[in-house]
Amino acid sequence: MYVHQRFPHCADAPAAAREVLDAVLAERLPAHAVAELRLVVSELVTNAVRHGLDRGGAVELTVNVTGDVARIDVTDGGEGFRPPQRPPEPADVGGWGLVVVDRLASRWGVESAPSTRVWAEVPLASSGTNGGGATAPVYARNV
Question: Cys staple from 120: which of 23, 47, 108, 130, with CB 3.0 to 4.6 Å?
C-alpha cells in the first residue's frame, strides 16, 4: 500500500493528511495500526507546517506499507534540524510531538539537503510502543 500526497503549507495540512490516510488505509489495516499511523503522520506534518519552510507551497507526505512496517516520510522546504537531546519537562505544553513519534516508531530520523525530510518506520503488528521505549534517532545531512 502506498500513499503519496502534497498538502498546502498551512494549518489545515495535518487534518488533510489524516483524511487521506484514512481513505487509503482504514479498510486495509487493523484499527490500532491506522490510529498509530494517524498520530505519527499528524505529528510530523504539524511539525513541518510549524517549523519547516514552505516547499513551493506544500508539505509532502509519503506512506509506504511493506509487510508489517509502514514507512512515513514528511518533507518540507526547511534546512534540517537536530531534535532536542532530552524530552520536554512534564509541565511543558509543547515539544512532545517527536517524543510521541519516538515511542511509536521502531526507527526514525531526519535528512536534510536540499529540504528537510523526517521519516519514521512504524511496526504494524504491535500496538502502543515500539517495544521498549526510546530509540536513537538517525540524522543524515546532505543525503
Answer: 108
